[in-house]
């Protein structure tokens, strides 16, 4: 499939330079509204502040020319806004199938215009390795954020194209850890080379072998507005429909969720941080929660009555290829102590506040990524009724 570069680089970049607008003829001509998350930016004492809750400030010491692989679906939407507000020149590498910028609920017209006028776009398929290498080399970026990379082979052409790269910041996953009875997972824990995230492990190894100044972030479960994985949305669908919540086994399995805005802040924290060189950081929320507790938390955050919870044995059912529950049926959580100590980073959102933020700015406005599918629920509930009778 042929790919092409659609946006030319501005003639000169500085903090006060003129930018090529994404609304010019070089960018997609239309940008549609998309119900997502609210970001409120302001200036105070000449420091750039994300005031989603008014507590956390992130600042970069100097402007960088930054490439984000991805950036229009979830994590990158929030990360790119922070980086642009910090004064960095940000380019998104995408296939161009989605609008490059989308106004978010609660974001003023001026805030959106300020952001969208500065974001740049490199259109192409990252599987076209020769195009990636040629186009990225021509631009000469200082820093790369790889948000959507899954395999090491996808990263090699970027490294080849940027021999003087200052930092490669990678979105990995806490799913790389080997299942263990000793929890929480620490960054030094054993990893599972056979996990479905083995490509991310191989990418981390590649970065280290190439001598790149890299940093890897390993989130646990990510949630928040625009989430394309059915995490909180799975619960919201059932709560809105007034249905029981089917939870596997005892419901006491402990897990952990981290808000996407806290994750974006962590990604900014590692930029240029001397302690982050060639390091891995777990990023998630500060609290752990049981499956039953999560169902109740979603109800409380969204203003629904406490739900009826039905427990079932997954081994008694054949769900085919469908997932009856959105989480691993096991204890799964990680320590964020290293990030807190070395990066001076702490999650801004409590679980209830974060779920409320997600509901109010997304699902509660009538937007969701996947339509409700209660077919597996009906199998579970049908058998439960038979047993009760």
Automatic annotation (TrEMBL):
Protein name: NAD-dependent epimerase/dehydratase domain-containing protein
GO BP term, example: monosaccharide metabolic process
Pfam families the UniProt entry points to: Epimerase (PF01370)
InterPro entries according to UniProt: Epimerase_deHydtase (IPR001509), NAD(P)-bd_dom_sf (IPR036291)
Family annotation (CDD domains): SDR_a1
An example molecular function term from Gene Ontology annotations: UDP-glucose 4-epimerase activity
Coiled-coil region: none
């Amino acid at each position: 499939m042929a790919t092409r570069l659609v946006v030319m680089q501005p003639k000169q970049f500085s903090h006060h330079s003129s930018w090529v607008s994404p609304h010019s003829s070089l960018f997609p001509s239309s940008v549609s509204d998309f119900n997502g998350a609210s970001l409120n930016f302001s200036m105070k004492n000449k420091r750039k502040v994300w005031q989603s809750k008014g507590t956390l400030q992130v600042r970069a010491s100097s402007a960088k020319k930054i490439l984000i692989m991805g950036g229009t679906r979830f994590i990158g939407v929030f990360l790119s806004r922070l980086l642009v507000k910090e004064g960095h020149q940000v380019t998104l590498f995408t296939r161009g199938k989605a609008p490059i910028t989308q106004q978010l609920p609660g974001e003023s017209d001026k805030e959106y215009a300020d952001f969208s006028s500065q974001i740049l776009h490199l259109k192409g398929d990252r599987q076209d390795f020769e195009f990636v290498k040629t186009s990225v080399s021509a631009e000469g970026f200082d820093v790369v954020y790889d948000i959507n990379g899954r395999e090491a082979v996808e990263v090699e052409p970027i490294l080849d194209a940027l021999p003087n790269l200052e930092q490669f910041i990678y979105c990995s996953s806490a799913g790389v850890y080997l299942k263990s009875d000793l929890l929480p997972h620490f960054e030094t824990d054993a990893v599972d080379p056979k996990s479905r995230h083995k490509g991310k492990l191989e990418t981390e190894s590649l970065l280290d072998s190439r001598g790149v100044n890299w940093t890897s972030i390993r989130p646990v479960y990510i949630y928040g507005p625009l989430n394309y994985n059915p995490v909180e949305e799975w619960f919201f669908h059932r709560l809105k429909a007034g249905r029981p919540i089917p939870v596997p086994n005892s419901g006491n399995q402990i897990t952990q969720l981290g808000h996407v805005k806290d994750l974006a802040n962590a990604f900014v924290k590692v930029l240029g941080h001397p302690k982050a060189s060639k390091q891995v950081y777990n990023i998630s929320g500060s609290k752990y929660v049981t499956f039953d507790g999560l169902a109740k938390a979603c109800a409380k955050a969204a203003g629904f009555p406490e739900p009826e919870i039905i427990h079932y044995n997954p081994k008694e059912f054949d769900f085919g290829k469908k997932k009856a529950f959105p989480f691993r049926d096991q204890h799964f959580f990680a320590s964020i102590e290293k990030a807190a100590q070395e990066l001076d980073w702490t999650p801004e959102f409590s679980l209830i506040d974060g779920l409320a933020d997600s509901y109010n700015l997304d699902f509660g406005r009538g937007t969701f990524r996947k339509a409700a599918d209660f077919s597996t629920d009906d199998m579970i509930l049908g058998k439960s009724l038979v047993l009760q009778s």
